Each structure stands twice: as C-alpha cells, then as structure tokens.
Amino acid sequence: MRISIPNITSNGTYTPTLLPTTQIIQRLVEFLGSSTGTAVLTGAGVSVDSGIRAYRGDHGRYINPNYKWYQELVDKGEKGVAFRRVTCTFELCELRSYLGYPPVRDAMPNTSHTAIAAGMHSSIFKRLITQNVDGLHVKALRPFWDTSRIENHILELHGTLFRVHCQHGHALDRDEFQRMLSESNPEWKEFADELESTGQKPRTNPDGDVMLEGVTYDEFVVPNCRECLAEGRINSVLKPDVVFFGESIPDSIKDRSFRDVEGCDRLLVIGTTLATYSAFRIVKHALELKRPIFILNTGPTRADELPGIEKVDGLSGSVLPGVVRTFLGSDAVRDPALNKLFSSGIIRPPPDDVHDLSKAAG
C-alpha cells in the first residue's frame, strides 16, 4: 500500500540543492567545526547501502499492513480477538515478519553507519537518535563499545527488530522467537530455507516486513508466550519491540530524544524525509532551542520550508566518510579503531529486480 506523505512540499515540486561531493563535505565540516557536541538524527535512507529499502524515494514502498489496524491488531478484548479471527491480519503480519527478518538481521553496516560510528567514537557526535529498527548503528559500534555505553549514546526512537514482547510485557530475544515460529510452522521453515539456499531475497521494508502475494497464510501458527503459559495464561499476541504505524512512541522515549538534543549544541539530520511526527518534532524542538540544523538527504523533507535550516541533497554513504576523515585529520589513520571502521563499511544497495514473494509454502 502506498501512503501519500503530507507537508513535505507545498506545491508538489522540488528543486534539489545539487553540489559536488567535495563541496558538500566542506559545508558539513564547517557546520561541525565549532561544535562541542553534535546530535545526529538518522532515517531509513542511511540503511539503503546495506541492502535495506527506504519507505520513500524512487524505490521506497509503504507496505506495512498495520498502518490503520494497529489498535485492533493488539486489542486484548473480544474486539481484538474477533478482528484477528476474521481478517487473519495478525498471522499475516507475523508471517511477513518471519520471512522479512532474516535479511535485516544479516545486513551489515554500510559506510554511513561506520562513518557515524567513527564520529561517535571520536566524540564528534555526542548523541545519535535513529528512526531505524535494523540495529545497524549498534552493530557498527559493538566491536568497540560495551552495551551500556551504546545504550547511553544511541536512542532507537522506534524500537528494535531484535527483541519481541508479549501483551503482558514478557521480553524475548528475536532469534529465539524465530526458532519458535519455525518449530510451529515446519512448511514455512522449509520455504524460508529454500529462499536462503537459492539466494532469493524478499523485497523487505525497513521494519522487516515483506509483501506476499497469492499466499495462503491462514494456517500459520503463532506460538503462545511461554512465560504467560507458565503463569496459567494463554497469549499468542507477541510483537517485535518496534513502534508500529498508528502507534505512539512512549513518553519516556520522546522525553529522552528532547534531552539528547538539549544536551548538544547542534543537530545533523541524515537520510530522512521527517514524515513521521516523532522525528519532525525533534527538529522543531531543536529550532525552538535555536540550535543550528543541517539536513543531508536525497529529495524533499518535511522541514524544507522551515526557516533557519541548512540543507543539501547528497548520498550519505559518499559524503559522511569524507566529512569525518577531514574533521579528524591524521587521527583517522593513527587510531586502530577508526582505521577499522573506515575500512569495514559496505556499499551494497538493493537491486531493482527484487520482487514481492508470490510462492506459497508447500
């Protein structure tokens, strides 16, 4: 399903600010030059070079089925039970996520992730707020920082695909949940194994959702939460620890995103249209604080017409390594951790010929 994105441009036209990569790098270096701590806000565009499609842009797609149905999907009462029974929406969501999670799980950090990680490791970037649930920013820093330090410096605004929780708050590792789904659905496990063995990659959204066409899913089994069963309760409503479309982010997350901006002296926005309000209000808050703001994105954003924002069109994977290297100078070569980061980022955008899955299990 495609969703029109309001408030990105007022007249439907957009004229990009096109500059040579060297000039974009120089402008960003100048923007960061006097900073004592920059906050970074990233979106799905940052992960495209890791093979994960953005929601928007030339090849982006809104295919998440929960855009309008989230409240009914997880309703604990009779209304939710009836809705799920009639539409099979919950089983379909779980099936699509079951097939779409492995490509996200196996994705590797690209040059944008590793450059941002290098900037954080060298204290150029003080805080990172990401809308992405793919865990790639965390994966880029994990070899160098412990979990506590990562969680203190990276805020996953919309959650993470790597955890699952039930309606009653029981948490579960995502890989364990995948194993539970495989055990409960051996035919779909066989289909998933066939996809992997033949190298077929489903067209996957940033939230791990795939489009299935002509597929029978009404016998897909979602296992019960084991902790709920131990407490004498039957509950098969489990969801990834992500904010679905139509769901609000917790106040604690919103408040922390504001604090992260307040604790920094400027905001760098990368790879996002800012179409989701949870991200747009971070930019608005930075404007209210009179923080300098720079946007690096390809295509229009919701903030383009706001005064006091500098913006250029550019590919983050081509720009950010040069920005951080220029800013660090010889330290980019001398520091072994930075050297490893700069040499490890991939550039592997998704091919144009990956199609929606149409083959049913069995």
Describe the protein in words.
The chain has a single domain, classed as Rossmann fold. The chain is α/β, with parallel strands linked by helices. The protein contains 15 helices and nine strands. The model is unreliable at 1-7, 59-69 and 358-362 (pLDDT under 50). It has helices at residues 21-32, 70-74, 78-87, 89-106, 111-121, 136-141, 147-153, 174-184, 186-198, 226-230, 251-262, 277-288, 316-328, 331-334, 336-344, and strands at 38-42, 125-130, 154-156, 159-166, 171-173, 238-242, 266-270, 293-297, 309-313. The strands form two sheets. A six-stranded parallel β-sheet has the order 3-2-1-7-8-9, sandwiched between helices. It has a three-stranded antiparallel β-sheet with strand order 5-4-6.
Which features does this protein show?
362 residues, 15 helices, alpha/beta, three-stranded antiparallel β-sheet, Rossmann fold, six-stranded parallel β-sheet, disordered N terminus, disordered C terminus
